[in-house]
Amino acid sequence: MQMAKVRGTVVGTQKLRSMTGVKLLLLQFIDHNGELLPKYEVAADPVGAGLEEWVLVNRGSAARQEEGHQNRPLDAMVVAIIDTVTVDNRRIYGEQQS
Amino acid sequence: MQMAKVRGTVVGTQKLRSMTGVKLLLLQFIDHNGELLPKYEVAADPVGAGLEEWVLVNRGSAARQEEGHQNRPLDAMVVAIIDTVTVDNRRIYGEQQS
Amino acid sequence: MQMAKVRGTVVGTQKLRSMTGVKLLLLQFIDHNGELLPKYEVAADPVGAGLEEWVLVNRGSAARQEEGHQNRPLDAMVVAIIDTVTVDNRRIYGEQQS
Amino acid sequence: MQMAKVRGTVVGTQKLRSMTGVKLLLLQFIDHNGELLPKYEVAADPVGAGLEEWVLVNRGSAARQEEGHQNRPLDAMVVAIIDTVTVDNRRIYGEQQS
Amino acid sequence: MQMAKVRGTVVGTQKLRSMTGVKLLLLQFIDHNGELLPKYEVAADPVGAGLEEWVLVNRGSAARQEEGHQNRPLDAMVVAIIDTVTVDNRRIYGEQQS
Fold first, then answer.
1. Cβ pair A44, A10 in contact under 8 A
2. Gap from A58 CA to chain D (nearest CA, Å)
3. How many C-beta atoms surround the C-beta of residue C14 within 10 A?
4. Phi, psi (deg, nearest 5) at residue A61
5. Within a domain: A98
6. Within a 10 A sphere around the Cβ of D66, how many other Cβ atoms?
7. Is A75 on the interface with D (CB under 8 A)?
8. What is the pLDDT of residues B8-66, one digit of tens each?
9. How confident is the model over E54-78, as pLDDT tens digits?
10. Do B31 and A14 touch (CB under 8 A)?
11. Which of B49, B71, E15, E21 has a CA-to-CA distance to B27 between 20 and 30 Å?
């Protein structure tokens, strides 16, 4: 999975019937230091992430491993909203535990 | 999925039988700011997109998740025509709602 | 799918039994303007393309979506020989219709 | 598979139910000379790797080829902790055998 | 498939049970002119390639299309040892036929 920041939404009304009811987020990828990368993915979001949140996004057939997604033509899906990212024992994202 | 602009068509008569009747569009990819990228995909289009329209394109096994596509050797498919793209609450593509 | 030009062949006699009888072409990728890219794929060719022809090549599990290919360890296959490529209503490859 | 170094962890509490109980490591990729690359993957770890260890990580549907992973939306998984890497008969990682 | 040169081996003892008995080669990729690329893959080798040999390697689910590999978490596999590569009717690898 890659880490990504929710940047916006993509909407289309003329689409495959199997795309009906799928919320599509525009996600910009983040590198392992927490910096934005010039790379994005439009992904289904069954988790309910909000603008600017960091999420984990999968790609490929993994995007259809979710109840109700099995027969949708999806190749990217949000699987979690990220709380914390820790690199070399240093918290690079999320609240410090108190 | 990636965003892409319909740039043209690709036609071949000598092909696998399973490719018969598949309309193939030449799609040029668009970045998350709406700029064209030097990257393309030739994708099946069961949606009916027109030249210059923005579309969402999937890749991989997702391209066969459509009635009549299951046994075709496709690895890219148009899943929707894009109406609007919104980044950081700013509309970067599509009509402003009135 | 990507567009590619047939540049040559790859031959191996010591191989998996499931690779027996598969003709392997060396394909060099072409960009959306028709220029050769520094990128290639060795792909199975059940279509019968010849040297210098332009072809459409798929990748991934799509390469096994063909009678007799289902259990072969293939990840790239020629699906069509390209007759014409049209970008922005301009023919960039193939004969002008008369 | 790619070689990668364990750099940290990613934690999220709001996630798909199928992600429950999956330990996620932040892995930074290593090139064939043993140098760190500016590329990472967040992968499930059923092996139990520790910080700074070198691991082998797979991607794609291979990440679900493990008891208990089959229906999880994973696209990357640690498959082994690396003991030794040998290039051109030279040990580039791991203890010299005595 | 890509062409690659066998550069070495990767060994790990702490691993998924399904990785037991899989020989893993470190393969460095070769471009379509026969030059080494700064890119590698660690792949299962059921063919029996030796150091410095050129091989064909697949990636993705194709790596499990082999008797005994179906349930292993592999995403890359050697499918053949290359005898000859011919580009534009010029032999770039392998013995000239006499």
1. no
2. 6
3. 13
4. -65, -20
5. no
6. 23
7. no
8. 999 999 999 999 999 999 999 999 999 999 999 999 999 999 999 999 999 999 999 99
9. 999 999 999 999 999 999 999 999 9
10. no
11. B71
